[in-house]
Amino acid sequence: MAKRHAGHFVTFLPVAFLAAWQCGAAYGTRLGFAQAPSVMDSTAAAAPAPTLRSHGTLSRVIRPPLDLLDRRGFFSRAGFTPTKRKRAFSVGPIPRLGALPGLGAGLSASREPSLGTHRRVEVRLSSTLRGGHSVSLGSRVVADGDAGAEVTVGYRVEPYVRYFGLGPASRRENEAFYREKTAWLGISASKGLGSVTNVVVDLVFSGVETEDPGAHESPSLVSRFYASLPSGYDSRSVGTEVGFSLAIGPEQDVGRSAPPDLVLARAAVLKSFIGNEASFLSSRVELQGSLRLGGDSVRFLAVRGLVQYLEPLGSDPLPFQRLLSNSGPDLLRGYADLRWRDRGIALANVEFHWGIWASSDVLGPALDAYLLTDVGQVFGDPTAVALRNVTLSHGVGLRLASTRGFAGVVEFARSREGSVVRIRVNRMFQGSRRETFRGTTSAPGT
Predict the structure, then answer these.
(1) How far is residue 155's CA from residue 187's CA, in Å, rounded to a whole number?
(2) CATH number for position 103
(3) pLDDT mean over 117-121
(4) Which of 77-81, 190-194, 301-305 tops mean pLDDT?
(5) Residue 49 lies in a domain
(6) CB–CB of 298/368 below 8 Å?
(7) Is residue 176 assigned to a domain?
(8) Would residue 121 count as lying in a domain?
(9) pLDDT tens for residues 372-409?
(10) Which residue segment(s) compose the domain that 266 sits in?
């Protein structure tokens, strides 16, 4: 992406954001697209960091075009305003746009057999012009509000996946690409323990295969790292993962309000039995919290921190496609997805939010701005966690949300390696790496 002058940044954000919704992204939350991968991830050359001079200035720039769209009923037609009518069967688009997978689209179809019950079946299909394909089928049942079960099966092809090497010392100029194919079958059961505690037990059978990429991106991983290919390359890692998760905190759609205080913990064991037979124990702890500032419910400081580590159960090295990375909700937003990769990851995300516009309809959408800072690193061993290896990102973002819940964000973030612009409809706060239901699972158990 070409270098952009910081003075044009405030104008660029709302234009890019609304253009994405015009292409269909506005339907994402209604159709369950809120957990899908990033729809755009572009790395730009280093540019001056943007500054927000005042709340009033930003509002004066952004309010007029949004007020015009609001008066003409754009947000109501796009599905941001709740309707009283509920349908047992719904179909909608899935827009896909990214620097690596390219332009694409898909379809989401869901059915709730009996309105008012807590049963749902959903099928999702998508494809891109550069060979990215995904299909998943999920069925979810919730009984009496405190117990539930989920079954899902899926297959995904990522035509171009980045690889820079392992560890915090990997170099940006070593960027290479490979193709990744993933298949999975998952079963999970959940149970509420009181009003704010929930436990989940899951069993996931998965296979991850890597191979040479297509002709659109170069160099390939095998040509760049021919002298030191990572363990598991050009082979298939197949295994079964058994996991236990604990969540302490209220269930709440992020929407426009501050995210609730949450404690999330997970422990899982993956046993490999085809290809690379390395097995490991995965441990993860995540804390989230927010602090409202003043009497304004949309002016708040949100903080998220997590640590995850894969402990090998044996002497065999872990397949690199099962390792942890900065992807999914675990972003370091000034860096490209998958820039860092290793057995462990530790990071913190901090955001300061304030409201800048709201629809005239009390049930309609609203636009918030926020400043963001991310710090963190990957590591192969806990002793490698050190200040010299920590990365730092900072930037700004806009978040469009309504009473329907989370809608999407557009972000500009900078790091020592340049700038990244993202349009996302996946969550960071209250996000999950275990969304097998919608086909957005990621390492380690996929």
Answers:
(1) 15
(2) 2.40.160.50
(3) 77
(4) 301-305
(5) yes
(6) yes
(7) yes
(8) yes
(9) 999 999 999 999 999 999 999 999 999 988 766 667 89
(10) 6-438
For the chain, the first-to-last Cα distance in angstroms comes to 31
Q: Give the C-alpha distances (Å, rounded to integers) separating 400 from 42, 163, 336, 410.
A: 20, 32, 23, 9
Q: Are 90 and 417 within 8 A, CB to CB?
A: no
Cα–Cα distances (Å) from 55 to 272, 293, 354, 418, in that order, read: 53, 15, 8, 26
How many domains does the chain divide into? 1
Q: Round to whole Å and give the CA distance between 117 and 414.
A: 46
Q: Tokens for 37, please give them.
A: 């991968």
CA-CA distance, 428 to 417, in Å (whole number)?
Answer: 22
In-domain check, residue 1? no
Secondary structure (DSSP) of 220-278: BHHHHSTTSPPTTTTSEEEEEEEEEEEEES-----TTSPPPPEEEEEEEEEEEEEES--
With contact defined as beta carbons under 8 Å apart, do 237 and 444 qualify?
no
pLDDT tens-digit series, residues 11-69: 333 333 334 333 333 333 333 333 333 434 444 433 343 344 445 666 677 777 777 77
The rounded distance, in Å, linking the Cα atoms of 35 and 421 is: 19
Do 279 and 272 meet the contact criterion of CB atoms below 8 Å apart? yes
